[in-house]
Amino acid sequence: MTNVTSSLAHQAYRVVRQRIMRGELSLGQVISRRKLATELGMSFLPVSEALQRLEVEGLLESRPRAGTRVRIPTRDEVEGHFVVREALEVQAAILFTRTARPAERRELRTLASRVDSLAAQPMRTLVYAMLHHKLHRRVAEYARCPALTDAIEKTHALASIWLGLLRHPAPSDAPRRHEQLVDALASGDPDRAAAAVREHVAVGLHRTLEVLDPYFRMRRDHRETFVRSERKQRLQGIGVPRRSSSKVRYQSV
Hints:
This protein has helices at residues 3-21, 33-40, 44-56, 75-99, 102-119, 126-142, 146-163, 177-186, 190-221, 230-235, and strands spanning 30-31, 60-63, 67-70. Helices cover 66% and strands 4% of the residues.
């Protein structure tokens, strides 16, 4: 692959990944390589390279004669994801209690307060998703283990897509859910911090399985084909956002 093709493939990769992470491309939404290539002013080759890279990362899936779509996970995969996430974040929490500085603990408390405030809004915005991701990333960073931070960052790529479906607060949501988590982390007690993370992750798993249930059914009912029509997806209870009319922006995610 030439340097030009490689550069274009990276551009296409960033655009599609950004749209997935922002919820502009929903779970199960089919991606037309032809339309994407036309929109980005590229040939099929760099677009195909970009989509293959996203498949390797678990964000897309393809089937012969069915096309490519934003990947719908299975229930087992989601549960497995949260097992891994719990293991990573519990370890980060334990290290955080030992290594985080006073200013970093104060920063997390402020950030957690903002996240909880936005979480209580009737319709959660992109800002909520971004700050939620930032909060968990900061915990990993202040644990001061780069390898652990990288692993947590990779698990949150998929979790961010699912988080985007939690647009409305649930009646059972604790009003200070993230503040309580940070209180435990900042206590300096590794056992308390680990227990708080386990509870936090367990609640996240429960809510994620709830919102993904119609997608699990969609995956089961369409094993061999992808539902391409947005109207049909909406009839099945699948939330497909309207396509944005804004111009493509080449930004990193």
